[in-house]
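Open question from group meeting: does this chain pack into something compact, or does most of it stay loose? Before anyone orders reagents, we agreed to write out a predicted structure and look at it together. Recording both the input and the output here so the notebook holds the full record.
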Amino acid sequence: MKKTGKAAAAGLAALVGVGTVGGLPAANAEGSGQSDSETAITGPALAQASAAALAATGQGRVTDTEVGDEESYYEVEVTFDDGTEVDVQLDRAFQVVAEPKGGADG
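Structure tokens returned:
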């Protein structure tokens, strides 16, 4: 019984550790809109893409990310306090390549 409890505690600790990357919340932790074919942005690129997306929107929080999106190299989903979401498309240099789209009417 003690081995099972220790294994469960270790598994929980591992899952909690996955929730942050470089001190930032993992971008796909909230809502987890990632499908198996999507790859989340990680490491230093996550911090750069998040900063670029938030600068473009002026507000909100990063709730999902993707590398190799069909529309751009990076896609960052930003959710606003009112629950609306926008996707910010970025190139490899973290420059916005299209106006953020989304919101109430998608």
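Observations to bring back to the group:
Residues 1-35 have pLDDT under 50 and may be disordered.
Residues 22-102 form a domain with the SHC Adaptor Protein fold (CATH 3.30.505).
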